[in-house]
Design goal:
The complex is a heterodimer of chains A (278) and B (298). With 278 residues, chain A is mainly alpha-helical. Chain A is 79% helix and 0% strand. Chain A is extended and about 75 Å long. Chain B has 298 residues and is α/β, with parallel strands linked by helices. Chain B has one domain: Rossmann fold (3-Layer(aba) Sandwich). Chain B is built from 12 helices and 11 strands. In chain B, the strands form 2 sheets. Chain B has a 6-stranded mixed sheet, with helices on both faces. In chain B, strands 2-1-4-5-6 form a 5-stranded antiparallel sheet. In chain B, a hairpin with a 2-residue loop joins strand 5 and strand 6. Chain B starts with a helix and ends with a helix. Classes of the chains: A mainly alpha (278), B alpha/beta (298). Chains A and B meet through helix 10 and helix 11 of A and helix 3, strand 7, helix 5 and helix 7 of B. The complex binds adenosine-5'-diphosphate and magnesium ion. Adenosine-5'-diphosphate binds next to helix 2 of chain B.
């Protein structure tokens, strides 16, 4: 019992004044500025809640109706399963092609969007271009392409392609900006051209990340593709929407179950591949 | 298995041819640039944000020399080496390689890539592409001779592969040819970098502290290898080193830099303690008197 205080005392007596003054300079955790920021954040949350009609009370009051509504989804109606399965394959196909086309286009564009490779004006131009493609949701692009190429999955593929290209340009070029410069310089020193530096020095360094990003976007695109049918751009969304409109909730439930299983399988497989790459 | 052995057999056979070819090209270039120094530097100056890193550096290196660049850390050794093959541009002065101006007053020659292909560069951190195999890293040395289309498809000819394999055999790591560079030890990586210089057909090798990241045994092997290439193939070697004992053992001539100025240029034997103290300042104790000499005693 007696030990610790003596220990402390002896430690205290040998503490240098510099140590004590350093401790006194430690930043305070609560400052007036932080209080102001905190209050501001709370105000923003309350305002946003009002704007979006947030009302947890209603959710609980209507819970009886809600249960009744949900029960209509069961049992699921798998009568048209062959049809749904082919729709799901169409959905996955849209995801594959939308992603693949985007990856192919993003490879050269991301190189000229990387600050350590291309001149700044070109980087600026390509980056703003990719921002624009990324800023607009796939569904909006799908509406545009349904008008341009007609109803069907191809419109969906194009919608996924444009949005994904924007995303992959950004991700790919950020990967390029994070490479080690040494190996590239090693290749430059042999008398190689700029393009050869990129092919042999830059690309091998980013390939694992690029593949991983592409697979990740593929997972996301299959999920996105399942919605695009609602605006007529192909995939399982068409059947989903039609069943909803006909109040056939059993069918909706069957479609959702199949969709969940398909997406889960794709996510698992893709995550396994990505783990191996990095 | 037998097929694998076969490949090695062909490669070693080719190696002898390769060496002859290499030697004859050295001879050709000697004829063409007869009397021209391998490297000639005139009044080279370079500053980083106003702070001078090189000041009026002039030097001349004859073909076939093995020259050490010494000086304390920050004295400008790396900057000078990087200017010799145009990885960096100076503010003033000129660099000539076998009589051709490589850079003049900060302007690179329009054919700088061709000139560079005669000059191999070895880095302290090896600077290999870690995900490529040893063989691919060596093949990269030949890129200045490879067309755009073949570069895009990353395809190399059988002859190029044999040349690269014999370069790997020359540096003693043929058995690691298909290993990724990242899985090789530091010493092995540095030997891949030397093989890349051979693939390149380099007549000059610039080495920037090539043994600073290596264990003593690998460091010894790398130094022996560079000496061998210098003596047997007449490759001019300019090498920056900070272990004075290594300099004394391998390099007949030394150039010393102090704050970007050449403060000694002559026979290494003349680098006595007073001169070393002058070059290294207060660090002399650590670098010279307690150096790693014991390692390099055979
Ligand atoms: N890229 C750079 N940017 C700014 N300063 C640099 C750069 N490279 C070198 N220097 C400076 O130039 C001087 C010489 O450096 P360096 O050539 O690397 O010396 P050494 O290789 O002899 O250690 C040092 O003062 C260093 O800080
Ligand atoms: Mg250095």
């Amino acid at each position: 019992m007696g030990m610790p205080p003596t220990h402390l005392n002896s430690a205290n007596s040998t503490l240098s004044p510099q140590v004590l003054t350093t401790l006194s300079k430690e930043k305070k955790r609560i400052t007036p500025l932080r209080i102001v920021w905190g209050l501001l954040a709370i105000a923003v949350l309350i305002y946003a809640g009002q704007k979006s009609d947030l009302s947890f009370g209603e959710l609980f009051q209507g819970s009886g109706n809600m249960m009744e509504y949900i029960s209509r989804y069961f049992p699921p109606d798998f009568n048209d399963w062959r049809f749904y399965l082919s729709d799901i394959f169409e959905t996955i196909g849209m995801g594959v092609w939308g992603t693949l086309m985007a990856a192919i286009v993003a490879v050269p564009l991301s190189v000229i969007a990387a600050e350590n490779v291309a001149p700044f004006w070109l980087v600026f131009l390509v980056r703003r271009f990719s921002d624009a493609m990324r800023a607009i949701n796939e569904v909006v692009f799908a509406l545009v392409f349904v008008v341009a190429v007609g109803l069907g999955p191809f419109a969906g593929v194009l919608a996924l392609f444009v949005h994904t290209t924007g995303t992959l340009i950004k991700l790919f070029s950020e990967a390029i900006e994070a490479i080690e410069p040494g190996p590239v310089e090693g290749i430059r020193a042999t008398g190689a051209s700029k393009l050869q530096e990129i092919i042999f020095g830059v690309i091998p360094q980013v390939i694992p990340l690029w593949t991983s990003f592409t697979l990740y976007r593929f997972e996301a695109n299959v999920r996105a593709a399942s919605v695009l049918g609602i605006v007529g751009a192909g995939g399982i969304g068409v059947s989903l929407y039609q069943s909803f409109r006909a109040f056939k909730y059993g069918k909706v439930c069957a479609i959702l179950i199949l969709l969940i299983v398909a997406v889960a399988i794709i996510d698992t497989v893709s995550a396994k591949i990505r783990q191996r790459l990095v | 298995m037998s097929r694998h052995l076969d490949v090695i057999g062909v490669a070693s056979q080719y190696c002898c041819d390769g060496l002859e070819v290499m030697q004859s090209t050295v001879r050709d270039s000697l004829d063409a640039s007869f009397g021209q120094p391998a490297v000639k530097v005139d009044g080279l100056s370079k500053a980083f944000k106003g702070r001078p890193a090189l000041q009026q550096v002039s030097l001349r290196v004859e073909t076939g020399e093995m020259l050490a660049l010494v000086g304390a850390s920050g004295s400008g050794k790396s900057t000078l080496l990087r200017n010799l093959n145009g990885l960096q541009q100076a503010d003033q002065g000129r660099v000539e390689v076998f009589g051709s101006p490589l850079q003049v007053d900060g302007q690179l020659h329009s054919k700088v890539r061709q000139l560079r292909s005669q000059v191999g560069f070895i880095f302290q951190q090896f600077n290999l592409v870690r995900r490529l195999t040893a063989l691919e890293n060596v093949l990269v040395g030949n890129l200045s001779q490879v067309s755009l289309w073949r570069s895009l498809t990353q395809s190399f000819t059988q002859a190029e592969k044999l040349k690269a394999l014999s370069a790997l055999e020359r540096v003693g790591i043929l058995d690691q040819a298909y290993q990724r560079a990242s899985s090789l030890s530091g010493g092995q990586q540095q030997r891949v970098a030397i093989a890349r210089c051979l693939m390149q057909g380099a007549k000059i090798i610039l080495a920037d502290e090539p043994i600073a990241s290596l264990d003593p045994e690998s460091a010894g092997k790398v130094m022996e290898l560079l000496t061998l290439l210098n003596q047997e193939q007449g490759i001019t070697v300019i090498i920056s080193l900070h272990q004075v004992q290594v300099v004394q053992r391998y390099c007949p001539r030394s150039i010393a830099l102090r704050q970007g100025v050449v403060c000694f240029d002559g026979r290494t034997a003349e680098l006595d303690e007073a001169r070393l103290a002058d070059i290294y300042g207060s660090a002399v104790e650590e670098l010279v008197l307690r150096g790693h000499s014991e390692v390099f005693v055979p």
